[in-house]
């Protein structure tokens, strides 16, 4: 009996010890859990405090920027009232056009006239991250705001504005040189050499926008891109002067190619194929046809005396770095003679 009582005592003691250990362990776990919860709550409060401080700082900086911008606008307005020419708005090109038109000569006078006229807008990654172009591919066309950087009078216009005077009237090709007010035309020679054109969006490739139907010369600086919105950009019932509607005035009768042209284009194509915007020599030939389907000659060339026109005058067009030579007769029939690498692109610029 004594042994049994002793055994029960040991069992009770062991059970009590076990319960005590379990209680201590539970208490320690509960303490750790509470401590962890307190630490987490403390961290949350610290993060909330830091976030609040950051938001206050951001709001303060924004107010400072707004005030600075308001002060700048007020200063510009005051300056403008005294001297209009001293007002400057900071602008930087967001990208540059790589176009099939190597020179101004031959570049269409209006957009979408030459559907095969292709270009690639290469954006400046420092100003235009690829995400900026997301969604543009959903539009069929876009507006492009650019600079007439090859204007012959741009030097005086920008660097010596006091020596540059506004040309109130310019010669209009559709009117055979008759003059119209500059703001009634699309002339590139304007007080501010800024151009606006519309182009078809073919593809978006990271920081590049592939376009077609362009009237932009290679190297054109682009200031902005805006999507074309038919419901607001196309005005039903809009009216224009009759001379604007006369497309046939600049259309040529026919475009044919010499017997030696095919061999010449085959040889030249091997030199530009890898960098070309076109997939084949035949497609490039179609581009030549479309471009020359409109009389691209300058007013002085078109208005030469009749006896001079009867002479075999050879004109030049530079596309993708290739010199295309052609002749045109009195009935506006064009014969494309040859295509070759030009000795110097400057020889053909502006001709």
From TrEMBL:
Gene3D superfamilies: YaeB-like. CDD domains: UPF0066. Residues 91-237 form the TsaA-like domain. The keyword S-adenosyl-L-methionine applies. Keywords: S-adenosyl-L-methionine. InterPro entries: TrmO-like_N, YaeB-like, YaeB-like_sf, YaeB_N_sf. Pfam families: TrmO_N (PF01980). The keyword S-adenosyl-L-methionine applies. SUPFAM superfamilies: YaeB-like (SSF118196). Belongs to the tRNA methyltransferase O family. PANTHER family: TRNA (ADENINE(37)-N6)-METHYLTRANSFERASE. NCBIfam families: tRNA_TsaA. This is TsaA-like domain-containing protein. The lineage of its organism: Eukaryota, Viridiplantae, Streptophyta, Embryophyta, Tracheophyta.
């Amino acid at each position: 009996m004594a042994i049994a009582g002793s055994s029960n005592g040991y069992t009770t003691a062991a059970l009590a010890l076990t319960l005590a250990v379990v209680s201590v362990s539970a208490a320690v776990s509960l303490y750790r859990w509470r401590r962890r919860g307190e630490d987490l709550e403390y961290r949350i409060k610290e993060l909330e405090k830091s976030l609040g401080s950051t938001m206050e700082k951001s709001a303060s900086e924004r107010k400072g920027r707004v005030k600075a911008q308001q002060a700048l606008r007020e200063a510009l307005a005051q300056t403008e009232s005294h001297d209009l020419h001293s007002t400057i708005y900071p602008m930087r090109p967001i990208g540059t056009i790589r176009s099939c038109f190597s020179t101004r000569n031959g570049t269409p006078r209006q957009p979408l006239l030459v559907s095969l006229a292709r270009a690639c807008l290469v954006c400046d990654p420092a100003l235009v991250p690829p995400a900026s172009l997301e969604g543009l591919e959903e539009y069929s066309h876009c507006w492009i705001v650019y600079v007439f950087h090859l204007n012959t009078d741009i030097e005086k216009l920008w660097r010596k504005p006091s020596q540059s005077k506004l040309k109130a009237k310019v010669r209009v090709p559709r009117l055979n040189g008759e003059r119209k007010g500059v703001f009634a035309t699309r002339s590139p020679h304007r007080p501010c050499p800024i151009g606006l054109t519309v182009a078809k969006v073919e593809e978006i490739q990271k920081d590049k926008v592939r376009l077609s139907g362009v009237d932009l010369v290679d190297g054109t600086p682009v200031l902005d891109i805006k999507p074309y919105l038919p419901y607001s950009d196309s005005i039903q019932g809009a009216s224009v002067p009759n001379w604007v509607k006369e497309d046939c005035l600049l259309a040529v009768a026919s475009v044919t190619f010499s017997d030696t042209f095919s061999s010449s284009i085959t040889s030249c194509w091997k030199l530009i194929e890898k960098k070309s915007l076109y997939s084949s020599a035949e497609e490039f030939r179609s581009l030549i046809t479309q471009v020359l389907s409109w009389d691209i000659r300058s007013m002085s060339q078109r208005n030469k005396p009749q006896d001079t026109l009867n002479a075999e005058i050879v004109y030049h067009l530079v596309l993708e770095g290739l010199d295309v030579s052609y002749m045109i007769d009195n009935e506006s029939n064009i014969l494309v003679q040859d295509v070759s690498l030009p000795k110097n692109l400057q020889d053909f610029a502006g001709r």
